[in-house]
Design brief:
This is Aspartic proteinase Asp1. Helix content is 7%, strand content 39%. It is mostly beta strands and 207 residues long.
């Protein structure tokens, strides 16, 4: 079958597969592919954008791009999400760290952070809702990194500054430890939480 997919580990590495042998029979969230956004990329179509369960916008055009390390939102939605994050951080023990140039927006704490787990309680989940039921949840660890300076940085970037126009790209950072399946025969995209550290036994290439 004309099926491919990937599973990227948060610890690094992961695997790529071809064929349907590794696609679970249950537990996968499926949504139709949309051909309207880009012929070069896979798109699950327009989404509703939520932050912490609050609806921020509709008809949010999304493409999935495993070639992008980070996630990019168009200038409008990047600004909206950043504003919500900053609002939530008011009164929290995090301060902006403009001296850290790892990514455009970073925050520092009283002491260096070792992992996103140290700060995830201060951030909310970003959710993309497709159709009536399909949802892709992007938890804090799906859009934050810890820099070599021990600060936490926002892995959602302004796509306009990268020349992407109005495209919203879900990159590797947001699908780590998620099995993503592209079924080109049924024209659908699926995803499910997964342990991407475990290499499957057949039909795959490790990363």
């Amino acid at each position: 079958r004309n099926v491919m997919g990937h599973c990227l580990s948060r610890k690094g590495g992961g695997f790529l597969f071809f064929g349907a042998d590794l696609v679970p029979r249950s537990g996968i969230t499926w949504t139709p592919m949309s051909p309207r956004v880009s012929r070069k990329h896979y798109s699950p179509g327009p989404a509703n954008l939520y932050f912490g369960g609050e609806l921020l916008g509709k008809k949010f055009q999304v493409i999935l791009d495993s070639g992008s390390s980070y996630t990019y939102f168009s200038s409008r939605w990047y600004g909206v999400v950043l504003q919500m994050i900053k609002k939530d951080l008011t009164g929290k023990p995090l301060m902006e760290a403009p001296q850290d140039h790892t990514l455009p927006i970073c925050w520092k704490g009283a002491k260096p952070f070792k992992s996103v787990d140290d700060v995830r309680r201060y951030f909310k989940t970003v959710t993309l809702g497709f159709g009536k039921r399909a949802q892709l949840d992007i938890p804090p660890e799906g859009y934050l990194i810890v820099s070599e300076h021990g600060n936490v940085c926002l892995g959602i970037l302004n796509g306009a500054e990268a020349g992407l126009g109005d495209l919203n790209i879900i990159g590797d950072i947001s699908v780590q430890d998620v099995l993503v399946v592209y079924d080109n025969e049924k024209d659908q995209i699926g995803w499910a939480p997964a342990n991407c550290d475990r290499l499957p036994k057949s039909g795959t290439a490790s990363l």
